[in-house]
Amino acid sequence: MPLRTALLLLATALAAGTSSAEDDAVKALRKSCDAGAAADCQRLASMYATGEGVSRDAGKAADFHKKACELGLGESCLSLAALHRTGEGAKKDLARATELYERACGAGRPDGCAELAGMYERGDELARHLGRAAELHLKACDGGVVASCGSVAAMYAEGSPMARDEARAVALYEKACEGGDPSSCGQLALMMRDGRGVKADPARAAALARRACDGGQARACSALGSALREGSGIPRDPAGALAMFTRACDASDGRGCLGLGELHRDGVATARNPARAAELFERACQSSVGEGCYELAVLVARGQGVTQDASRATSLLRDGCTQGDPRGCVQLGALFQSGGLVMRDLNRAAALFREACEKGSTEGCSRLGAMRESGDAIGRDISEAMSLYARTCDGGVPADCHKLAKLVRRERRDTRAALDLDGKACTGGIGPACFEVARAWEAARDPVKALSFYQKACTAGHQPGCAKARKMEP
Q1: Domains with residue ranges and CATH for the chain
Q2: Which of 144, 175, 185, 414 is the right S-S partner for 212, CB 3.0 to 4.6 Å?
Q3: What are the C-alpha distances in Å from 186 to residues 178, 279, 396?
Q4: Spatial distance between the Cα atoms of 310 and 151, rounded to a whole number of angstroms
Q5: What's the rounded mean pLDDT across residues 129-147?
């Protein structure tokens, strides 16, 4: 017999022997599976899914996952749910997939809880149910799924669907971050920076932002850029800020483009370039960062680095206001209040000032307070004016402390409270307020203190104060 023929026969025999051995192994697994060994059913499912030792067969894989699942193996319930969800090897059936994810979750598979939570949270496959999503994310988080810890942390931070609890959000973000979720590290950095739910810690915030940025979170790179620019919790490093903002903007983070635009506008760590700044602000604006719209509006209004266009500037202020920057609301309100670029509309102005105030703008509250005091077109409301002035006075607007003092003196006849407010306004350099305090000391027959406050009024540019001070000075 020729050598080549002999070798071929030997190879065929060996192959047949191997095939026979493999068949015996599959038969043994089938027998064990039929006898109730869930792990062997799952092993067969895996073999048919991948084609390991058998011909690949998604249908048989689904059948064996079903057997393993029915025997209580959560991993196979999870795999079978995925098959029903995609329709690969099993009929596409979201109701069945949901049932199986529930079973996997109940059988100790936290990743099953997490998958189902995501379906309820997104609402693209199941009817959206944030309450159920939160329950499942919490269960998954307790089982070690760090992404679910981050998801439910965001719900606590936003106050939806449960009551807002920023301290709980911080704890959950901390757990997820320590578990290796860079997105949660980035969110924790922002909360640490702003002191939300935890004492502000700029140094830790910067460290967390760097960790998240290195993990691919562009928003965290922007936060780190801001910290480096301002020297907040980390040594000031304009060049480092430029690098971080560039990295974030290149990754399509609007806040990174905003920060980079500010550096180009101001000539910090790079040559001053208003045209480049305008391009970057536009990118930020298009990414729904209201501050970008506002900063671009300023450049467009002035014709710096871009064609001057009052109409476009007005439109950009409106975009900035809509996208969350209260400065856009205030400036647009001022335009409606004064007229010129837009038709004068005091009601519209008041509405914009109110919107800015509700978004945390002290200037918006102050302007609205003045309109409510005067009654310009929107109706006079002294009570609301006083409430707004109290807010702006506490927010660091000394002129509004004096305005409130006058209303308190006139409306409530509370001289003591009015003097306290004028004292606060005087400390802030409001001449008429110093004059009122001086008059009170003069009435109390304390010429030394009276003279002191008349002099303060004079220094602040209040001419009646200067006249009184000259008369009293020795």
Answers
A1: 28-108 (1.25.40.10)
A2: 185
A3: 12, 27, 31
A4: 43
A5: 96
Would you say residue 340 has pLDDT above 50?
A: yes
Per-residue exposure over 184-197, b if at least 16 CB sit within 10 Å of its own CB, e if not: bbbbbbbbbbeeeb
378 has a pLDDT exceeding 90? no
Q: HSE-up of 25 (CA within 13 Å, CB side)?
A: 12
For residues 370-384, average pLDDT? 90
For 256-299, what is each residue's pLDDT tens digit? 999 999 999 999 999 999 999 999 999 999 999 999 999 999 99
Amino acid identity of 134?
A: A
158/181 Cα distance (integer angstroms): 19
pLDDT of residue 74: 86
Three-state SS sequence of the chain: CCHHHHHHHHHHHHHHHHHHHHHHHHHHHHHHHHCCCHHHHHHHHHHHHHCCCCCCCHHHHHHHHHHHHHCCCHHHHHHHHHHHHHCCCCCCCHHHHHHHHHHHHHCCCHHHHHHHHHHHHHCCCCCCCHHHHHHHHHHHHHCCCHHHHHHHHHHHHHCCCCCCCHHHHHHHHHHHHHCCCHHHHHHHHHHHHHCCCCCCCHHHHHHHHHHHHHCCCHHHHHHHHHHHHHCCCCCCCHHHHHHHHHHHHHCCCHHHHHHHHHHHHHCCCCCCCHHHHHHHHHHHHHCCCHHHHHHHHHHHHHCCCCCCCHHHHHHHHHHHHHCCCHHHHHHHHHHHHHCCCCCCCHHHHHHHHHHHHHCCCHHHHHHHHHHHHHCCCCCCCHHHHHHHHHHHHHCCCHHHHHHHHHHHHHHHCCHHHHHHHHHHHHHCCCHHHHHHHHHHHHHCCCHHHHHHHHHHHHHCCCHHHHHHHHHHCC
Residue 268 tokens, joined: 């910090």
CA distance 191 to 201: 9
pTM of the model: 0.82
34, 50, 65, 263 from 80: Cα distances, Å: 18, 15, 6, 53
| pLDDT value of position 5 | 46
pLDDT(147) > 70: yes
* pLDDT class of 22 with cuts at 50, 70, 90: low
pLDDT in tens, 386-442: 999 999 999 999 999 999 999 999 999 999 999 999 999 999 999 999 999 999 999
- pLDDT band at residue 19 under the 50/70/90 scheme: low
CA distance 402 to 375: 19
